Q: What sequence folds into this?
């Protein structure tokens, strides 16, 4: 049972390999290949095959366990599977004859039979005999695999007879064949199978092989197998054939001739080699090693197959060849890179053609080596050639190996370089010559196409030489220059005509008439005509200029970074540190100084030596000087220290003085440079004024080593440097002293420091109190024009160079404070330096005691801006005019400068103002005393200026005391700050206060300081808390002056028409607050826009005209409306406010006028513009025509108060406001019939809703029907495509997109430019995303019919009420299909765009809900006057929201999506009744800044916000 369960063992056979053996005499120099045949069969892998096996052994090796004193070897066994899958084990024995290496005779063994008989033995026995592997194994058996012959004995089952068919080595084939024949006879006696193996067939001799085959053919069943152990051909076949003969059950193998078998074997090798080489090709780093790669590939089948067939040695050789190829390829590429980089290096080092044109390459190499940049381009290697050094591995070193330049390729590059320089020089010369030719042609105008210019230059030599591309490039450069110059000159011309722009209305867009007037004036200018071919650019520049006039801020200043406000803030920030209340008392009373901080500066250890000397003379760092003990803190620093400036001034150490010690010309020069650096740092970079006033003392060290001849020179040079630096010089005392520094020197230097500290204390005012910082005695505004050709520090030097100058309080970045003695007292003067455009807001709203108006005598535009600004300044305010030029000689040498300086002085004479000049090349005129007389004049008129200012403020507060403005539903003050941004929809007032960063009033009042009495009058609350809201400012009341009591005005003749509209609107909405004593025409009888005459402050009149700026309004019955004052006289209020009757009376007698009425020069300029545009009519006719044209559009001037007294007064010359009442009545009588006709025009009560007309220009695109703007090929209007593309490319993530309004002027400009050129690029216009979004919305708003047709509104409304979401969406989808095809395409396009916007809601905060709020009125065009429509606004909005959310479903057959639920701005209303109420008060005050009132906003019932 046990035997049955055991698995049958595979059959085992023992094969004995025999053949010619013996001494060299018997077999020749080499054997017949028995060992190689056995080796290849037992261990077929190439690495395990050994081609050399020796039979000559030592006695020791012969007696070892491998040979074991036998003349046969045991090669081991091989397990082989036949074709039928049956395994068998074959033990291989090699019968040989071992020769003694001493006697060269066969070794003696236990079997003394000759080889023929011994080889035919069928039984072999040898105890503990080990398997043979190779010759190296003998004697080192322990280092190889040790496997014993099984059981020490074997029975031979067959014989493999080897016959060498190669040429042999000193052996005759016939002898071998004879030996084989005898051996065969012995073998055949054993009755065992025999196979003949013809060995070494790779070196086969054909007739030998034929003899073997003939020998075998004579024998029965003797088979010949042609083998080659070297190439592993038919080795296994011969053993397999023998096994088949021993076991007839096995299939008989096919015996293949050697050549066929060889081809098959070589094909295997070739295939394996290809696969291995491809595997090796994956290695791209020539630094890779065989060890690393082989370990990585050892498990790869292609690698293993090749190793088995060819061996590791060949594999390594193949790998090495590949690595060498990689290296050579790398070197080739590096060489190519170097050759390609050589032209750049030559351009760097040998760019001068004149220097190298005649040099050979070898000479040029010598020149290059001497260049300072040689090392950056080339590298000289210690070892050459470069491609055999490690430089090839330095891929980051782009420098060219210098030895590479000795090649022919490098020399050829040099020759090409020289030729290129020659041709390039010629090309550049011709391009410049062509450029000069273009400059000489006067007929070339800006914007002229190249095609029109070719005819002028076709015969030019330079034009013929250069290429077309070069000629176009030169012309484009020339065009850029002349266009840029023309634009600059055009902009300068606009500034020269400042009076033309600064009398414009306050609306955000000028009227068509005003634009026509501007063009009429400018059209005669050559600089206007120069841009004739660039009309869109010219119009854009003009609109941009006008936009800046409306919204003047430093961010939008046309001078960019040259804006005066920016430059002033930068200069003051660097020159003055803000003086806080806790600043150090560093320079307190010098009499109380008991500690002196000294900074000691020297070179080469001199500073430390001086510090040691001072310490030697001190006791515990206390120094006795003039009877007083001072504590000294010494900080010696070497002048070469890189940390010099940082160590000089720290929070812990602030020096009182600096000792600068020297002992040579070199050290003196070095010290001078250090002091210059320190002073520059102190004056320009973040240091305060005490640092700028730091005392320096030069100290000469004694030459103690020898009596130096250089001492007089050092003394002289030191004194010269001290004079230059305005600092003391301490000389070496007379006599001989052993030390470098003398006690007298040190005491003299310390006394100088104490005097300097005392001087600084005297000139620097003591630390002011809080009151001193917050209040100024005088407030002066200095105005200068942006872009003027002088430095800001020139006009500020009279203040900054003064020791009495300090910083203004925090937040006033453009102001400084002066402490000057004027009269008998020290006065604090606040100087605010502004640009003219920022000063306009100050001129209107701030208390200013005087103006310093600066202009450049080199620039007409500067004078033009000064005239425009000065014209509107009240003539009670003193003015100082300052002309700036280089030197006094300019007045005599330059007629233009002389003319402008003369004009400035003439204007100053006319208005009794001060005039002076500043010269950039002169230091004298930079002194503060330049303005001393002006300050004195201002101080004398201070009370009158403040009284006049308060009188105007009181009048304005009188007319606003009635609560005629409806309170904002969001709460807040009646005083509003307008957002200082160009993107606001309607924009702030053109000359609004200049922002929080430019504030003249340090403590602005607000409404909370005043309380309304029962009559609506304000009176001050003296217990007002200090922490009022900063944004609720009232610029009309300065802190030092109490408000004037409200005085009744009995005779009122002037009314601001726009404000009266607001009053009427407020009264209409609040009937309970309407004063009974103010009769007004009924709304249906009076046209609010035509009820008032036009402002005439900028129009020239004869003296016979009425003096009022605004004519008296008339009602529909041709009666003058008498507006009585609703204010009750409050005599008690007058007493409480403490105002004397004198102030009231004086202002009743004389109201301030403006300087333009006192100066013929100023007034004639304004008058000339009117004459230029109305030269075809008389003055009277022009005046009437102008009023008729502008009726209903022109607002009152912002300069004029709401009400003015009847009494007129003459202020200045040619005052057009002075006329008689009779003339005024006559003028009004002429206008009555026309006005009555217009006033009585009936108004339609039932009207169709039409879109509001927002454009003031004619357009053949905007406002046209949608069908006229599209084609079948382009179903989307081009303007819509451009806007959407711009928004999606540049601003899809802009916060508040479509909610935040863009600048209206920019929106109009976009549409105007598109009107003129449909190919205009929005990117080139430099407009904001919000402006483009606003223009896109305006496009839809201007359509004759809304994009969503009115006819479908009701269906959309009904469908929206369906409760089931899926059904509702499908119904809406069917309704959309009813759109006109054009409307459908555009609606799909814009909704798809809004869907993309909503997908970015996390960054732009515009959800579908927010976008629908912004867009549904534009797309559906609601009639908000229809109360029924208002009740469904939320439903209509939700329809648009649904279209945006479900865009894919409606238009692209997508799936219904679940709407995202981001946090909305406001929740929707809970009941529809609340939605109507907030819409009732249509007349609201201007909005507050959102960021200031956010906390006060109530929930918006409509969800609009």
A:
């Amino acid at each position: 049972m046990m035997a049955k369960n055991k698995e049958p063992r595979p059959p085992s056979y023992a094969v004995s390999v025999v053949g010619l053996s013996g001494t060299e005499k018997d077999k020749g120099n080499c054997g017949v290949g028995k060992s190689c045949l056995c080796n290849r069969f037992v261990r077929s892998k190439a690495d395990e095959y050994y081609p050399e096996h020796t039979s000559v052994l030592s006695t020791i090796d012969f007696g070892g366990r491998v040979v074991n004193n036998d003349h046969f070897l045991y090669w081991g066994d091989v397990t082989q599977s036949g074709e039928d899958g049956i395994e068998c084990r074959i033990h291989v024995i090699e019968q040989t004859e071992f020769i003694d290496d001493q006697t060269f005779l066969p070794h003696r063994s236990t079997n003394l039979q000759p080889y023929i008989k011994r080889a035919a033995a069928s039984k072999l026995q040898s105890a503990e005999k080990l398997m043979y592997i190779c010759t190296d194994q003998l004697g080192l058996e322990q280092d190889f695999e040790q496997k014993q012959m099984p059981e020490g004995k074997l029975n031979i089952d067959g014989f493999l007879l080897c016959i060498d068919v190669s040429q042999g080595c000193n052996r005759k084939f016939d002898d071998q064949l004879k030996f084989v024949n005898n051996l065969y006879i012995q073998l055949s006696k054993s009755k065992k199978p025999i196979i003949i193996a013809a060995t070494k067939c790779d070196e086969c001799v054909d007739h030998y092989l034929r003899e073997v085959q003939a020998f075998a053919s004579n024998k029965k069943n003797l088979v010949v197998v042609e083998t080659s152990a070297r190439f592993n051909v038919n080795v296994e076949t011969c053993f397999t054939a023998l096994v088949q003969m021993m076991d007839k059950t096995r299939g008989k193998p096919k015996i293949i001739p050697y050549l066929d078998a060889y081809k098959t074997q070589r094909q295997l090798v070739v295939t394996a080699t290809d696969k291995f080489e491809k595997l090796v090709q994956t290695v791209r780093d020539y630094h890779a090693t065989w060890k690393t790669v082989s370990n990585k590939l050892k498990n790869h089948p292609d690698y293993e197959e090749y190793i088995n067939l060819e061996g590791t040695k060949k594999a390594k050789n193949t790998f090495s060849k590949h690595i060498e190829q990689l290296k050579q390829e790398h070197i080739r590429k590096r060489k190519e890179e170097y050759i390609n980089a050589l032209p750049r290096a030559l351009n760097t080092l040998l760019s001068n053609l004149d220097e190298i044109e005649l040099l050979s390459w070898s000479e040029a190499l010598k020149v290059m080596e001497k260049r300072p940049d040689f090392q950056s381009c080339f590298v000289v290697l210690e070892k050459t050639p470069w491609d055999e050094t490690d430089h090839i591995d330095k891929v980051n070193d782009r420098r060219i190996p210098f030895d590479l330049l000795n090649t022919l390729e490098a020399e050829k590059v040099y020759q090409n370089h020289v030729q290129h320089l020659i041709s390039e020089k010629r090309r550049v010369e011709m391009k410049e010559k062509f450029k000069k030719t273009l400059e000489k042609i006067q007929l070339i105008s800006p914007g002229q196409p190249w095609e029109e210019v070719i005819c002028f230059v076709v015969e030019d030599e330079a034009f013929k030489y250069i290429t077309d591309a070069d000629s176009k490039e030169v012309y484009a450069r020339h065009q850029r220059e002349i266009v840029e110059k023309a634009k600059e000159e055009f902009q300068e011309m606009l500034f020269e005509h400042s009076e033309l722009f600064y009398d414009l209305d306050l609306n955000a867009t000028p009227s068509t008439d005003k634009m026509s007037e501007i063009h009429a004036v400018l059209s005669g200018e050559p600089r206007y005509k120069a841009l004739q071919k660039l009309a869109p650019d010219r119009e854009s520049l003009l609109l941009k200029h006008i936009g800046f006039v409306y919204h003047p801020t430093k961010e939008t200043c046309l001078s960019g970074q040259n804006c005066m406000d920016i430059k002033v803030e930068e200069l003051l920030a660097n020159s003055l540190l803000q003086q806080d209340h806790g600043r150090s008392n560093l320079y307190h009373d010098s009499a109380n100084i008991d500690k002196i901080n000294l900074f000691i500066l020297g070179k080469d250890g001199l500073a430390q030596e001086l510090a040691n000397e001072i310490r030697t003379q001190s006791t515990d760092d206390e120094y006795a000087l003039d009877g007083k003990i001072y504590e000294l803190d010494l900080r010696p620093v070497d002048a070469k220290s890189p940390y010099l400036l940082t160590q000089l001034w720290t929070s812990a150490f602030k020096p009182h003085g600096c000792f600068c010690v020297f002992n040579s010309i070199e050290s003196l020069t070095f010290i001078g440079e250090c002091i210059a650096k320190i002073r520059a740092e102190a004056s320009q970079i973040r240091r305060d004024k005490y640092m700028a006033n730091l005392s320096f003392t030069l100290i000469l060290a004694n030459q103690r080593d020898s009596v130096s001849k250089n001492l007089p020179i050092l003394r002289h040079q030191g004194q010269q440097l001290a004079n230059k630096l305005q600092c003391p010089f301490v000389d070496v005392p007379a006599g001989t002293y052993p030390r470098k520094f003398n006690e007298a020197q040190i005491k003299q230097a310390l006394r100088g420091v104490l005097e300097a500290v005392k001087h600084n204390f005297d000139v620097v005012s003591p630390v002011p109190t809080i009151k001193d910082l917050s209040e100024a005695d005088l407030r002066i505004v200095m105005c200068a024009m942006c872009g003027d050709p002088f430095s800001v520090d020139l006009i500020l030097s009279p203040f900054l160079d003064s020791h009495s100058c300090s910083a203004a309080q925090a937040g006033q970045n453009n102001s400084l404070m002066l402490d000057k003695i004027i009269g008998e007292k020290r006065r604090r003067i606040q100087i605010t330096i502004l640009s003219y455009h920022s000063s306009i807001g100050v001129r209107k709203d701030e208390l200013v005691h005087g103006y310093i108006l600066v202009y450049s005598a080199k620039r007409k535009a500067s004078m033009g801006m000064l005239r425009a600004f000065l014209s509107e300044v009240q003539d009670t305010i003193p003015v100082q005019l300052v002309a700036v030029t280089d030197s006094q000689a300019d007045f005599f040498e330059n007629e233009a400068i002389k003319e402008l300086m003369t004009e400035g002085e003439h204007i100053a004479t006319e208005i009794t103002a001060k005039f002076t000049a500043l010269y950039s090349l002169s230091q004298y005129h930079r002194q503060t005393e330049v303005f001393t007389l002006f300050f004195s004049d201002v101080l004398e008129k201070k009370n009158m200026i403040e009284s006049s200012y308060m009188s105007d403020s009181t009048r304005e507060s009188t007319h606003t005391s009635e609560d005629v403005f409806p309170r904002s539903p969001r709460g807040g003050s009646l005083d509003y700050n307008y957002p200082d941004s160009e993107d606001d929809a309607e924009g702030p007032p053109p000359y609004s206060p200049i922002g929080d960063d430019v504030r003249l009033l340090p403590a602005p009042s607000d409404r909370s300081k005043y309380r309304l009495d029962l009559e609506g009058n304000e009176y001050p609350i003296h217990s007002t808390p200090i922490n009022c809201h900063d944004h609720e400012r009232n610029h009309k009341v300065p802190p030092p002056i109490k408000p004037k009591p409200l005085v009744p005005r009995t005779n009122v003749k002037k009314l601001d028409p726009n404000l009266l509209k607001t009053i009427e609107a407020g009264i209409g909405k609040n009937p309970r607050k309407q004063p009974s004593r103010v009769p007004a025409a009924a709304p249906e009888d009076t046209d609010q826009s035509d009820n008032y005459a036009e402002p005439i402050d900028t129009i020239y009149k004869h003296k016979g005209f009425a003096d009022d700026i605004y004519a008296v309004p008339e009602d529909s019955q041709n009666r003058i409306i008498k507006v009585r004052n609703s204010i009750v006289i409050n005599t008690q209020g007058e007493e409480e406010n403490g105002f004397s009757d004198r102030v009231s009376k004086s202002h009743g007698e004389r109201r301030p006028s403006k300087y333009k009425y006192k100066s013929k020069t100023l007034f004639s300029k304004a008058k000339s513009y009117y004459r230029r545009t109305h030269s075809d009519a008389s003055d009277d006719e022009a005046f009437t025509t102008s009023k008729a044209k502008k009726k209903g559009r022109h607002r009152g001037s912002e300069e004029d108060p709401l009400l003015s007294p009847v009494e007129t007064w003459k202020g200045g010359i040619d005052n057009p406001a002075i006329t008689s009442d009779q003339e005024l009545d006559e003028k009004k009588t002429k206008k009555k019939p026309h006005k009555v006709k217009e006033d009585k025009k009936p108004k339609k009560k039932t009207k169709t809703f039409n879109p509001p007309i927002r454009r003031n220009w004619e357009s053949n695109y905007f406002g046209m029907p949608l069908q006229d703007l599209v084609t079948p090929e382009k179903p989307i209007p081009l303007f819509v495509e451009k806007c959407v593309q711009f928004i999606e490319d540049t601003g899809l993530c802009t916060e508040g997109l479509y909610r935040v309004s863009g600048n209206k002027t920019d929106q109009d400009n976009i549409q105007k430019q598109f009107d003129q050129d449909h190919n205009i690029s929005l990117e080139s216009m430099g407009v904001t995303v919000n402006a483009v979004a606003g223009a896109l919305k305006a496009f839809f708003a201007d359509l004759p019919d809304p994009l969503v047709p009115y006819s479908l509104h009701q269906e959309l409304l009904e469908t929206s009420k369906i409760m089931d979401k899926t059904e509702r969406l499908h119904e809406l989808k069917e309704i959309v299909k009813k759109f006109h095809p054009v409307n459908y395409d555009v609606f799909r396009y814009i909704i798809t765009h809004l869907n993309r916007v909503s997908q970015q809601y996390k960054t732009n905060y515009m959800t579908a809900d927010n976008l629908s709020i912004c867009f549904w009125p534009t797309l559906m065009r609601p009639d908000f006057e229809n109360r029924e429509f208002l009740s469904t606004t939320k439903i209509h909005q939700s329809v648009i929201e649904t279209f945006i959310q479900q865009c894919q479903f409606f238009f692209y057959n997508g799936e219904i999506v679940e709407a995202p639920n981001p946090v909305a701005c406001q929740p929707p209303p809970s009941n529809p009744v609340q939605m109507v109420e907030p819409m009732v008060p249509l007349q609201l005050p201007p909005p507050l800044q959102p960021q200031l009132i956010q906390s006060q906003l109530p929930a918006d019932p409509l969800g609009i916000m």
Observations:
- The two ends are 100 Å apart (CA to CA).
- Residues 312-349 form the longest helix (38 residues).
- The longest strand covers residues 628-638.
- The chain has a mean pLDDT of 75.
